[in-house]
Q: What sequence folds into this?
């Protein structure tokens, strides 16, 4: 499959392997000949086996979205968008708290040298 996004052509391939010892499907997702994600599933005749195949393919799609930096993800069979990142400003207070907790006052410091 080839997609054209703003002049960029991407080669997207899903390789399917069948392990005949366990009858499990193994999928590998390549984008422009680079491995992006792997997943596996157990196909069969029950509804639950079909769901594992769908979940494996959705996992590959999530690996693809993660690789291209997209905020889209598959969750519970639907395409959803991740929440906006609050940025470094939100984490600044947490970092300051950690720094103050790790700071220790020493009354009589002793220096030890070893070689």
A:
């Amino acid at each position: 499959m080839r997609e054209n996004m703003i002049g960029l052509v991407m080669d997207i391939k899903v390789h399917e392997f069948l392990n005949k010892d366990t009858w499990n499907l193994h999928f590998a997702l390549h984008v422009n000949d680079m491995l992006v994600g792997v997943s596996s599933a157990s196909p069969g005749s029950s509804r639950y086996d079909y769901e594992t195949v769908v979940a494996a393919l959705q996992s590959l799609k999530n690996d693809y979205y993660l690789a291209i930096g997209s905020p889209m993800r598959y969750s519970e069979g639907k395409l959803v968008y991740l929440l906006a990142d609050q940025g470094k400003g939100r984490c600044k207070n947490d970092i300051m708290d950690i720094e103050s907790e790790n700071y220790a006052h020493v009354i009589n410091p002793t220096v030890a040298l070893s070689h």
Observations:
- The beta strands are 2-5, 8-19, 24-31, 34-41, 72-75, 78-81.
